[in-house]
Amino acid sequence: MSYPFELALRQYIAAFDGTNNISPAEFQTRFDNLYHQYFTFLPKDEKAMGEDGFTTIKSKEPLTREEVFEREASKLADGTKVTLIHFRKIGLDCIDIKLGLVNGGEEHAVRFVTTITAKQAVTSKEI
Asked: What is the pTM of this model?
């Protein structure tokens, strides 16, 4: 079940080569192949040190599929380069994914656990 998802992910990542030479229609097709119509992204919670010395956790709101598309299209337009660091199956329908992102001089990695159904991502939780 994860093989078609991995292919869709690799094709999607290939669009983020830093050149922005993919048509909007092709980008939309790759996005649609990867993400289920009811996809939800759960961002990592923020930890902040309070004035009293205690750590507080702020939960971020989940992002809808449309919000994720807007963010990803913006990254594509900015010339962000994405590389797949690891893709590990951790359950029957769960995948641990780590991506490296480079935009200009900024470089960082993001990691998330994705649940797949019908060969598409239905939920991703940033860890």
From this structure: 0.86
